[in-house]
């Protein structure tokens, strides 16, 4: 699949895919529709070639590659349960809105985020993710 070159004003997206084995794959792209199709057709990441996608759980828009990549790394540290809670909280709170240029009827955040810290009020509760909790 030829890489689509980002432009300075083009947003980046973090996406979460639920795989057929109930695991969650997290990735970043500038074109979610095209990237998801690649995963479904077995031409995406090795992970989704071995564990085919079942459905797209969430898509979050970021202003640039750096903030999307940083957020992807943070989300990849979570358990599958935490990722599902994160996706569920986004949709329950209408934090993610339809983005017709990229997807329909999947979901993306209505305003681009600049970092995962903007999403922290909706992050799953976990002592490992929330330094205010006592780990005793």
Q: Figure out the total of helices.
A: 4
Mean pLDDT: 74
SSE order in H/E notation?
EEHHEHHEE
Gross morphology: globular
Q: Which radius of gyration do the C-alpha atoms yield? A: 15 Å
CATH architecture: 3-Layer(aba) Sandwich
CATH class group:
Alpha Beta
> Major sheet: size, sense and barrel closure?
3 strands, antiparallel
Helix coverage percent: 25-40%
Write the layout of secondary structure elements.
Blueprint lengths: L11 E8 L4 E6 L2 H9 L5 H5 L2 E10 L2 H12 L3 H13 L3 E2 L10 E2 L27
Antiparallel strand pairs: 1-2, 1-3, 4-5
Please tag this protein with its features.
single chain; 136 residues; alpha+beta; GIY-YIG endonuclease; three-stranded antiparallel sheet; two-stranded antiparallel sheet; 4 helices; 5 strands; disordered C terminus
Description of the molecule:
- The protein is α+β, with helices and mostly antiparallel strands and 136 residues long.
- It has a single domain, classed as 3-Layer(aba) Sandwich (GIY-YIG endonuclease).
- The protein is 29% helix and 21% strand.
- The chain contains 4 helices and 5 strands; from the N terminus they run E-E-H-H-E-H-H-E-E.
- Strands 2-1-3 form a 3-stranded antiparallel beta sheet, with helices on both faces. Strands 4-5 form a two-stranded antiparallel ribbon.
- The chain is globular.
- Mean pLDDT is 74; it is low at 92-110 and 126-136.
